Amino acid sequence: MHPQTPEALVRDHTVYSCVMGSRAFGLATEDSDTDRRGVFLAPTALYWRFEKPPTHVEGPGEEQFSWELERFCELALRANPNILECLHSPLVERLDATGRELLSLRGAFLSRRAYETFTRYAHGQRRKLDADVRTHGAPRWKHAMHLLRLLTSARDLLRTGALTIDVGEARASLLAVKRGEVPWREVEARMNRLAREGEEAARHSPLPDEPDHPRVEDFLIRTRRTSALHPDPYDEVVQEGKP
Q: How do residues 187-223 score in pLDDT, each as one tens digit?
């Protein structure tokens, strides 16, 4: 097999891609970027070489980022907030049979681990906002808006066992925060309330303690095996002197 560039892996082997960011959250405005995220399946034969395929690829388009399937599953099993949200985007742009099975496993990745990972991420963002307030007298309002969205999403996930990333009817109130129309004290109070509600929800969550590792691993093994036994014509070895 001839080496493939990272860009070619994304171009030719993407199994799932979607739009993320404000457009997926229902918070897009005229100046919003289009953030694209995807998952590619590196052909199994590439792992037989000393130089392994990349675990992720930035580009080739602007605001585009993709993960190799195994790395994506690893992060999802750890309840990485960005990865879990990527699995639940309402704006799917590309999907093949492997991608459809990946999406069918969304529930297998969800567990009470989400409380720890979402909370850790939220605490990091909150520290940055507090530092902005101390230094500049005001937070970066866009970041404050997205933290409110994340805290709400995490609370509702823990309460219901389902992850929904579109903000729905909360759009207007969140965009008011982004425009700096809501006093920081009020925004801060909302963040504190959502954090408390998330902690309470975690104690009674319908989510399992751990994700379904065996189910996800079975999917990954079957997918790798299929790639090895039935490679795409593009991936087959081209013998010297033959087309």
A: 999 999 999 999 999 999 999 999 999 999 999 999 9
CATH code for the domain of 56: 3.30.460
Q: Name the residue with tokens 């990946």.
A: 102
pTM, two decimal places: 0.90
Does 82 map to a domain?
yes
What are the backbone angles phi and psi of residue 38, rounded to the nearest 5°? -155, 170
> Which single residue is written with the structure tokens 């801060």?
188
Helix (H) or strand (E) holding 185: helix 184-203
Q: Are residues 10 and 103 in the same domain?
A: yes
Task: Name the token pair of 60.
Answer: 């080739």
Number of domains in the chain: 2
Q: Strands, DSSP E only, in the chain?
A: 14-20, 35-40, 56-58, 64-68, 92-95
Query: For residue 181, what are its two tokens?
Result: 């129309």
